[in-house]
What does this fold into?
Amino acid sequence: MKVIAINGSPHKEGNTYHAFNMVGEELKAAGIDFEILHIGHKTVHGCMGCNKCFVNRDEQCSIKTDSVNECVQKMKEADGILIGSPVYYSGIAGTMKCFLDRAFYVAGANGNLFRHKVGAALVAVRRSGGSATLDSLNHYLTYTEMMVATSSYWNIIHGMSAGQAEDDAEGKQIMQTLGKNMAWMLKMKKAAGETIEAPEKARKVMTNFIR
It folds into this structure.
């Protein structure tokens, strides 16, 4: 089994990275492969709403000037997906938001590629805005029918300079607990898959507020 982590921080080894490693160490201790994809430092275009991913259904975004399509395939092959971001104005960092909008839209347009994968989100923050950012990240996981792993508190770790998150004792424990719970869910899902049939995928009903 494997978990892919999407690092939405512009800093390769900032506090988001350190939080990922705390989770990752628990996953690896449970025999689960773990890989971090760093996208927060890249130039990632926002979704243009062209809906070509729905028309073509080739698991590709029509924008091919960045690494979104490559990452979608790695996320598709993974058993679990971990997404993380620093806090920008009480929200997701811009590059990460662009990435998530496109990656999850492509996944949805192609039969919900991430459905029933085990997922989790985490946030690194200096002081406040962490809960709002974590909530926004969780929207992607729940909308995609992922099985969301939780911890003993909100998945938020505090620190200012890179590595300072290591001194957040409670935050560190939260990340470690998240890693253990995620590993347990992955193993439980694998074991249950051999005996319990997953619910049938429903055809999505699309409405608006006019009709």
User: Anything to note?
Assistant: Residues 61 and 145 are 21 Å apart (CA to CA). The chain has one domain: 2-193. Residues 169-193 form the longest helix (25 residues). The radius of gyration is 17 Å.
